[in-house]
Amino acid sequence: MCLELPVMRRAPVIQSRNVTSLTMRWRAWTNAPGNGMGPVVGYIVYYRSRNDSEWKHKPQTRSRTLTVTGLYASHSYEIRVSAVHQTGLVGPRSPPTETTTCGSRC
User: Fold this and answer.
1) Are 15 and 25 in contact (CB under 8 A)?
2) Domain of 73?
3) How many domains does the chain have?
4) pLDDT digits (tens, 9 = 90+) for 14-28
């Protein structure tokens, strides 16, 4: 049997934003048909400025919420999340969420 990596079908949701940070949450991976195989041991959040072709990522976390800091004011960002299988293999990235950090005020 071939391992089917866990698939995150839903985009992360922005909980809050300010001038230099974004806080997001996402639903837990579910073992539903078409979502790959578990168990899942964590998640990796990927983000990039819409003007940048290179993705950055945060270290693997077991949490389903995360704050990305050190961002630029009034910049648009794209965010995705992947589930990590217990083997350490990382599933495909979720659909994107796009948002903009605040300017001098939110």
Assistant:
1) yes
2) 13-100
3) 1
4) 999 999 999 999 999
